[in-house]
Design a protein that fits this description.
By secondary structure, the protein is mainly alpha-helical. It has 2 domains: about 160 residues, no CATH class; about 80 residues, no CATH class. Strands 1-2 form a two-stranded parallel sheet. Helix 2 packs across helix 3, helix 7 packs antiparallel against helix 8 and helix 8 packs parallel to helix 11.
């Protein structure tokens, strides 16, 4: 089918699509090529095949974009894919929430519902394509929201800064779509998630205290970008707590080491492993 699209053989393509039942996306592309209107609802795609339908549909879209297809038809197919991804993201998040309620990660249930991490790469490519097209601001915002949903749903297999970048993109795209209040809330959430643990655990009760900051630079950058944009949108400057970086201050590093060693000596052996590992993680020693 990709070859037929590349060669602009749309009549032959319609014939192949008419006899192909592997994916529902084929049927809807055929309807679009025939000039029919597509309405997406809960029955349009099978939830358990959202990912496969998206991968197949996006490969076709990339070929169609370079073809001589009518621009209106291409826009209809693009809109269909955006709707599909929006439903896919919501479903993956629902599955992740249900898994978390059972005390496991969604990625632990690959035999029940596998999530292909490649979705994030494909979604980003789709975002980058649509960013360069006029009148696609809303579509890009929906795609950015979907990518952020999926990243958070499989966050246990990603680096934290990867999730942060997706959240920043989510906020940026929502701002461009005019969703300012939502954008502000997103930036607030990012700042909370990417603040150093020592500040978060204190809840700001000790403003005179200097907090140990064990975050890697990538996470600090995410926090700072969110803060700058939050202050820009709200015209409200956030008062920063005093922090000292572990890798820049030998005193702070020694303090962390002494806390970890002290707890290792004091916690009873049968309970030490899990608790100690949490403390080490808190201070960047895990």
């Amino acid at each position: 089918m990709i070859d037929l699209i590349t060669q602009n053989k749309f009549e032959e393509l319609k014939e192949v699509l008419q006899h192909s039942n592997n994916f529902k996306i084929y049927h809807y592309l055929l309807e679009i090529l025939n000039g029919n209107t597509i309405e997406v609802d809960s029955e349009t795609f099978d939830a358990n095949k959202y990912q496969e339908e998206f991968f197949e549909g996006f490969e076709m879209y990339k070929a169609l974009e370079k073809s001589d297809i009518d621009e209106i038809q291409l826009k209809k197919f693009s809109d269909l894919l955006v709707e599909l991804t929006f439903k896919m993201g919501g479903f993956i998040q629902l599955m992740a929430d249900n898994a978390m309620n059972k005390g496991v990660y969604l990625t632990d249930l690959a035999d029940i519902y596998p999530v292909n991490p490649e979705i994030r790469t494909q979604l980003q490519e789709f975002i980058d394509i649509l960013k360069n097209k006029p009148d696609e601001v809303k579509a890009v915002a929906n795609l950015a929201a979907t990518k952020a949903q999926i990243s958070n749903s499989i966050g246990n297999i990603l680096e934290k800064h990867q999730i942060g970048k997706d959240m920043l993109q989510f906020a940026e795209c929502y701002e461009k779509a005019g969703q300012i209040e939502m954008t502000i809330r997103i930036y607030m959430g990012i700042m909370n998630d990417f603040e150093c643990d020592s500040v978060k655990s204190s809840s700001g009760l000790f403003p005179e205290m200097t907090y140990v900051d064990d975050r890697p630079q990538s996470e600090i950058d995410i926090f700072n970008k969110a803060k700058i944009n939050y202050e820009r949108l709200t015209d409200h400057e956030i008062e920063e707590p005093k922090r000292t970086r572990v890798n820049e201050n030998p005193v702070a590093e020694n303090l962390v080491e002494s806390v970890v060693n002290s707890m290792q000596n004091e916690v009873r052996p049968e309970k030490s492993t899990g608790f100690l590992e949490k403390i080490k993680k808190l201070f960047g020693k895990g």
